[in-house]
Amino acid sequence: MVHITLKQLNIYLMTARVYSILISGFVLLMGSSSCFAQTKETNETQLAFKTLHVFNLKSKYTAEDLQIGLDKFNSLFVKLGHPECYYKLWVSSGEKKHESYLWESSWSSKSVYDEIHKNEEYRKLVRKDMLGLRKMFTDHTYYKFQEHLFNEAPGPK
Q: Looking at the predicted structure, is the pLDDT value of residue 53 above 70?
């Protein structure tokens, strides 16, 4: 049998309480951080985003040639139930010797983007038209912009 003093017992109990609090806090922190990470990941797959292709057209092509191809994709997006997703062509309004273009792709979420890109009709259209459309480009630069995670700021949405 071990004999300890009252002071030793109090120190032992206090130490045990501190360890218990630390362990509980660690478990709580780990659980909440994994929930936050899962929530953040889920939220990011639901955020809208845009991609932008800035380029010039090779001289043998016109904006109308490109627009015809983009319209085929836009029709497919509507058919697939996602009219909020689209491709849109913009032309620079500045005075230049050659025109600069911007191809905007608008996606309501990463999950919708993935759904569309896995669709067999979309994949056929890519094989048939997209590769040809991209051959029209010269001086191509690509950008991706995602909706802000904390989009609670005042102002228009």
A: yes
Q: How many CB atoms lie within 10 A of CB 84?
A: 13
| Identity of the amino acid at 8 | Q
For the domain bounded by 47-146, which CATH number is listed? 3.30.70.100
Digit-coded pLDDT (tens) for 111-135: 999 999 999 999 999 888 877 788 8
Predicted TM-score (pTM) of this structure = 0.65
> Percentages helix, strand, coil for the chain, rounded to the nearest 5?
50, 20, 25
The CB-side HSE value for 71 (13 A sphere, CA atoms) comes to 6
H-helix segments, 55-139:
63-79, 110-118, 120-125, 131-134
- If you compute the radius of gyration of the chain from its CA atoms, what whole number of angstroms results? 28
**What pLDDT does 14 receive?**
56
> So where are the chain's domains?
1-46, 47-146
61: burial class by Cβ within 10 Å (0-12, 13-18, 19+)? middle
Backbone phi, then psi, for 3, in 5-degree steps? -105, 125
Q: Nearest CA to 134 among 65, 49, 50?
A: 65
